[in-house]
Amino acid sequence: MRSPLDRRRARRVAVALALPLALTLSALPALAEPSPSPGEIVPDRQSTTAQNGVALMRIVVPDQADVDRLNAMGVDLAEYKKPLDNGIEIHAVLSPDEARRLRDEGFDVQGVISDQTDNAENLAERTEALRSAAAATAETDTLTPLRAEWFTSLDEQRFLSVEVKSSATDAQTVLTVTWDSGPGTAPDSGGSATMSRFTDAGAYMYHRFSTPLSITQAPTTATITSNRGGSVTVPVTKWLGQPRKPPGKHYVADFVDHYMDPTEVTDRITSLAREFPKLAEIVDLPYKTNGYRRAAQAQFGTVAASTLYVSSKAYGHEGGNDVSVALAKPQAASSPLGVSVTGKDIVVNLATDAAGAVSSTAKQVVDAIIGDAAASALVSAATYRGNAGTGLVAAAPATRLTDNLKAPASVSREPFQMKALRIGKQRDGAKTGVFLYCQEHAREWVTPLTCVETAERLLRNYAGDSDTKKLVDDLDIFILPTVNPDGAHYSFYDYNMQRKNMINYCQANSADPASRNSWGVDLNRNFSVGSIFDGYSGASTTCTGETFAGPAELSEPEAKNEVWLTQKFQNIKFAMNTHSYGGYFMWPPGAYKTAGRELLPRVDYGTENFFWNASSHILSAVQTWRGTAIWPGRTGPVPDVLYSAAGNSADEHWYNRGIIGWDFEVGADVYNPATKRFQAVGFQPAFGEGHEEAMEFSSGQVAILEVARGYANDHKQPSSELKITGKSADSTSFTFAVDEPANIYYTLDGSRPTLSSPKLTAAGMREGAQQITVGTTTEVHWFAVDIAGNTEKNYKPDGNGKNYNKARVVVGDGR
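== M14 family metallopeptidase ==
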C-alpha cells in the first residue's frame, strides 16, 4: 500500500527535478521516464478480441502539429497530453486496425493502457457490489458497538468519539449517531451526526467519525441508527483523565530547550552516565553506522542525452572533495578524445570534427573516463539515469566535486558509534527490562528530545522523588535516543525532510546528484518480521523509495543494533518506539498483505486487553502535561488505526522475542476553536510546540515504566467466571469474564484444561470476548493466566491437580 508519505515524496521529486541546482550540480533537464523505442509495442497488457479489441493506447508524436493532425483524422483522443524528451505522449482509443493504420502512417503507437479486460473486471465488481447491496437491503443490519467515549483535550474542549460495525458492509450503509446532553436529558438533545465508513486495503473495518466531534456537554448515552434498519443504544464513557498521583514536591522536569542533533544527544546521555555512575552506564552498540558521508559528485549537461555525472571513489571528506573535472574543447579540428590526470585534476579533452566543433557524446566521455587508469582510480562516471548518452556534450571549466554536506566540523563524517543509556540501581539482568528508543526516522526531531527528557527525569529525580526511585530500583531501563544518527544529521544540516538513513544502494542510473535526498533505507521497514520480502505491504524495494526496505532484512547496522540489544539483554520485556507525528498510540501486529488484508497474527485476547488497559494509564499521563488527549480512534493495533508497515521494529521485537511493544506518534493534532478544525503540527514544529510534545510524551514514557514495574511486581492471581450471554430452545451461549487482562484456557469435553487447550479469543477487531455456543448441556473446565504468568488458584496446568474452574452450561431442559 502506498502511504501518503510516498505520494508526497513522489510530488516532491517531480518538483525537485524542475528546480535549478548549484553550479557544481548543473541544472537537470525536465525528464520523463524512458520511453520505448519508436515502433516498439510495450507488452504490459494484451488487447482482447472483445469489441474488436478496442483499447486505450499510448501514442508518442514529435510535436503539437501531429496532435492536431490526429485530431483532424478523427482519431478518438483522450484528454491527456504529457511532454517527453522526444515529443509528446497522448492517449487514444483504437481498434487493432486503427492502431495498424496509424503505424503505417508513421505514428509511434505504443503499449496498451487499458482494454476490454478492465471493463469486464469493472462490470464484474459492479455486479458483485450490487448483489451485496441488494442482499443487505433485504434484511435489517446488526450494529455492533465497538467504542463510545467522550474526552477533553488541551483547553478542556469536549469531544465525542464513536465506533460501530454494521453487518451490512457495503458503501450504501449509512450510520447516524444521536446523543444526549447528560443524565436525565432527551436522547437526542446533544446533537446528531453521520458517521464515516472506514475501509483499509479495500476491506470494510467499521464506521467512525473522521475526527472526534466537538460537543458542549458530556453525554451519557448515544444511539446509532442505520438506514438498513439497525439500531443500538450504548453508554458513553469518559476516555482518559483517570486520577493520577501528582509528582512529588521535589519532582523536576523540563530539561530540553532546543532541538538537538544526534551528536548533541549522544554527548548528553554520555555525560549523564558520567554524572550518575551508580545509576547509569553507557552501552556501546556493536554495529557502527555507515556514517554522515557521501561520495563527491559533479554533473555536466542539462539535456538527458548529453548529461553525465562523475562520482569520486573516495568519500568527500577523505579526498573526494579535492577532485576536479574539466571538459576542454581543443582549438584544433579533428582532435581525438582523450583524458589527462594531474594529481587529482582530471581534464577530458573532447573530440572535434573537421570543422572544429565538439563531436564527443556523453557516452563516449563516460567510457573515456572509465577507460583511463589514472582517472578511474579517482572517479566513476555514468550517463544520466541509464540514458544512451548519444547527445553531444558541451565544454565545461574545471569543476570541483563536492559531497555537498553542510554539517559543521563538529559532526563527524566517520561511522557513528551508537550508544544506549542503561539506567537502574541493579543492572545485572535480574530486573525487568524496558527499551525506550527514538528517531528511527531522521526528520522526527521531537522524538530524541522525548528520550533525553525521560533519562534526565529518572536520574535527577531519583534522590528526591519516591516514585522515581521505585522505577529505577525495580527496573532495568535502556534508552536509545537516536536510532538514525546519520539520517538525522542530514535532516538537520542538508535536507530537513530526510526520513531514511544515508547509505546509497542505488546503482549508477539512480545515483545522480539530483537523487541525493532520496537515498537511504527506511529503518522501520528493515526488520525481519512481516517484511516486504515476505510479501507484506507498506514498504518499497526501490532504492529511492520513501519506504525503501533495503536490499535485505536487517541489512542496516542501525536495525542490527536494536536486535542485538534485545538479544543481549534478554530481561527486556517492554519496549516503546517513539515516532512523530499525529498523536497515535499503537501496538502489534503492524503489517498485512494487501491481498485479502492478511494480517500478521493478532496478539492473543489477554495481551490485547493488557495493551488497552495500559493505554488508559499511559495516555492519561500524556494528558497531564497540558491536556492533550490521544483519540480513541488513533489507539490500537497499527493496521487498525494507521496502515501496514512491513518490516517494522515493534513486530520484530514482539514476534521474535515476545517483547510487549508500543509505538508513540507524538504531535497530536491541535484543535482550533475558531475554525472548529484540528490542525496537524508536522515533523518539526516551532520549538515551543515541539517542547510541549517532548514534555507530554516523556510523561507517557515514564508511565510505560510504571506499567512495566506493575508487571514486575505482579504476584496476584487472576479470578474469572463463566457468564451466560444467550439462551434458546436448542442452544446456549456463554463467555468468560476476568478481573484483569488474562488469557482463558478451556475445554468442553470434560477433560482437564492445559496450556494446549482452546484459548478464548476476541469476537472481532476492537470487539469484546468471543461468545461460545453449545447445542447440548456441557461441562466447561477452565483457568486464567495473566500476562505476568500468575495462574488462577495457583493451578498447575502441566501437573495433575484438579483445582481448575468448573461449570455446567445447560441447554433446553438440561437433559
